């Protein structure tokens, strides 16, 4: 008798009994149509590193699609105050230091009312900003800067010029050589907008915003010496010369963008 009672009271059978009771209770609750709670984490759409602008796009539309702040995207890409973009333009959306994809959230309890649930949900597209009055600059458009920063920029390295700016061949900056690990400095004072390697064609990249018109880019670095949102001075070290490029030697690509458009750095350097 004792053995039979002990067998019936094994943890396994007790656990099975608890599960059975739970199932009965759940069935009863379901019949009463009480509030339901989904405690599973919800994941937002992953944000790509960059986006290629298409016909009809606006910065507001692109930012809304991925749940981003259009002002940060504009600053990250050196856009003008009208946030002008053109078809085919590559926009940086995120940085490796600020991932925005897959953020878990908690769902609050919601009472389900079957009779009031719409059969055909209505989709409301994000509101678009009308930039039709702003001319879209083409990639080969020549910009004549008028800002006070139109001259007096420092060379980012002390190395020799390896490749000049040539918009026709797709060289949108100047390539400077140097010893691997040598310092790369900020060409003008400003605020660091981006530090990362999200764009393979630029390798390790630093972007510095100097004012509302100008952004400088330092690509194919070997290492970083600054952080995003950091204030830097002209001549301050921001990284080192790297070897990750298609020149097969240590080099840094230096770009200056005026209102989002690449310009020839040779016209600005001291």
TrEMBL record:
Biological source species: Faucicola osloensis (Moraxella osloensis)
Any one GO MF annotation of this record: metalloendopeptidase activity
Keywords, ordered alphabetically: Signal
Biased composition (Polar residues): 111-135
PROSITE patterns found in the cross-reference section: LYSM (PS51782), PROKAR_LIPOPROTEIN (PS51257)
Domain of life of the native organism: Bacteria
Lineage of the species this protein comes from: Bacteria, Pseudomonadati, Pseudomonadota, Gammaproteobacteria, Moraxellales
Annotated segments matching region Disordered: 111-138
Pfam families reported in the protein's UniProt record: LysM (PF01476), Peptidase_M23 (PF01551)
Occurrences of domain LysM (ranges): 49-93
Keyword Signal: yes
Extent of the signal sequence: 1-30
Name the record gives this protein: M23 family peptidase
């Amino acid at each position: 008798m004792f053995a039979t009672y002990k067998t019936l009271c094994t943890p396994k059978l007790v656990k099975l009994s608890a599960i059975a009771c739970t199932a009965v209770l759940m069935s009863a609750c379901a019949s009463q149509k009480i509030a339901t709670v989904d405690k599973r984490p919800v994941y937002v759409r992953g944000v790509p590193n960059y986006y290629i602008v298409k016909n009809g796009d606006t910065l507001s539309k692109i930012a809304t699609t991925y749940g981003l702040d259009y002002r940060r995207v504009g600053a990250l890409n050196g856009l003008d105050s009208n946030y002008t973009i053109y078809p085919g333009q590559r926009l940086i959306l995120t940085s490796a230091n600020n991932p925005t994809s897959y953020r878990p959230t908690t769902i609050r309890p919601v009472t389900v009312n079957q009779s009031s649930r719409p059969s055909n949900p209505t989709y409301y597209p994000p509101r678009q900003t009308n930039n039709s009055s702003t001319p879209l600059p083409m990639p080969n458009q020549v910009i004549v800067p008028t800002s006070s920063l139109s001259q007096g920029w420092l060379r980012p390295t002390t190395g020799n010029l390896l490749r000049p700016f040539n918009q026709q061949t797709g060289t949108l900056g100047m390539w400077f050589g140097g010893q691997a690990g040598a310092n790369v400095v900020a060409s003008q004072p400003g605020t660091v907008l981006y530090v990362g390697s999200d764009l393979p064609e630029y390798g390790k990249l630093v972007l510095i915003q100097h004012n509302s018109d100008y952004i400088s880019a330092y690509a194919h670095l070997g290492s970083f010496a600054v952080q995003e949102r950091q204030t830097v001075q002209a001549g301050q070290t921001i990284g080192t010369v790297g070897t990750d490029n298609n020149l097969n030697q240590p080099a840094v690509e230096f770009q200056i963008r005026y209102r989002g458009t690449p310009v020839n750095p040779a016209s600005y350097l001291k």
